[in-house]
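Help needed: design a sequence for this.
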């Protein structure tokens, strides 16, 4: 599907609403208040779709000062974020370049989300590890202030070591699984062979105890996967430092395409790709490659200012004006 309209017409808002209905959160902000129209106190997103041939009807309600509420086929969910376990939605927006050019935290967050989508049974592992680190840091500060003994640290040190080892192992598996597809797409998009390199080792209890004095001085845990990084490379070049914005854009797109293929292969899921303004900096040859990939089993919604930007006839063309989205037929 191609969504067209002038800048500021609401194309990004449409993609954001689809992501919100499919995943329970916005790709743009974690503040639910920012999702409600200015001057209003509530908002609603409704989506009627099919998943594996069965109805997948979602209603999500936003109210100022309250938690989001979601229903699937009329049944309420305990939390709106549970929607992410029901559907796979991958999104590209210009600010997603932070995955490549931002700090390590942005890359860890992206690959941890990919970990959860590809291995649902391990989806809670990053949060469990983060909670253990938070508890150990609190214990470090109590010991540093003289309110607790060093012995009280031992259970949290072991917990961080155990969960940290599991998290590193699962992250490495995720990165290793994504790497071949990422390299293939980078090459097809005209760049040097793409590589993903995980930098970090599983923390051990002995290592954590060996740096205890430094951790007590700082009040934080200075070793573990909460500090690790993933190198996103073209050949030998780290694109964070030595990549142009165009190359960084292609790297993010290659990651999404690689993950979409893995989801279809591993989980028999056809993810929805939301590609906002992805065409604006692609030349004709790269646009053709993207169209070919999107036409090989993916379902995608692509936004652009003009229909000619896609260089192919879309299955559905939607025109967006402020407050209105209108289907105008197949390819117009």
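Sure. Designed sequence:
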């Amino acid at each position: 599907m191609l969504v067209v309209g002038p800048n500021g017409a609401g194309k990004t808002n449409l993609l954001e609403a689809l992501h919100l209905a499919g995943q329970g959160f916005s790709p743009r902000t974690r503040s639910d208040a920012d999702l409600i129209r200015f001057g209003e106190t509530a908002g609603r997103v409704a989506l009627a779709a099919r998943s594996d041939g069965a109805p997948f009807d979602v209603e999500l309600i936003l109210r100022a000062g309250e938690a989001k509420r979601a229903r699937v086929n009329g049944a309420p969910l305990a939390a709106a974020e549970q929607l992410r376990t029901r559907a796979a939605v991958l999104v590209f927006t210009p600010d997603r370049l932070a995955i490549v050019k931002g700090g390590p935290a942005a890359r860890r967050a992206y690959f941890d989300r990919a970990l959860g989508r590809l291995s649902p049974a391990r989806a809670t592992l990053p949060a469990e590890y983060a909670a253990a680190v938070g508890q150990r840091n609190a214990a470090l500060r109590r010991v540093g202030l003289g309110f607790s003994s060093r012995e009280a640290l031992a259970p949290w040190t072991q917990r961080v070591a155990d969960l940290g080892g599991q998290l590193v192992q699962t992250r490495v598996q995720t990165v290793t699984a994504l790497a071949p597809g990422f390299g293939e797409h980078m090459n097809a998009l005209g760049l040097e062979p793409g590589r993903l390199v995980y930098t970090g080792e599983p923390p051990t209890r002995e290592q954590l105890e060996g740096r205890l004095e430094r951790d007590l001085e700082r009040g934080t845990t200075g070793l573990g996967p909460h500090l690790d990084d993933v190198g996103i490379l073209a050949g030998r070049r780290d694109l964070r430092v030595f990549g142009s914005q165009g190359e960084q854009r292609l790297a993010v797109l290659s990651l999404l395409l690689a993950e979409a293929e893995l989801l279809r292969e591993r989980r028999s899921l056809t993810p929805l790709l939301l590609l906002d303004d992805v065409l604006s900096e692609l030349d004709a040859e790269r646009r053709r490659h993207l169209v070919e990939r999107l036409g090989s089993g993916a379902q995608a919604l692509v936004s652009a200012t003009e229909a000619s930007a896609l260089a192919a006839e879309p299955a559905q063309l939607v025109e967006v004006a402020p407050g209105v989205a209108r289907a105008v037929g197949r390819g117009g």
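The longest helix spans residues 154-188.
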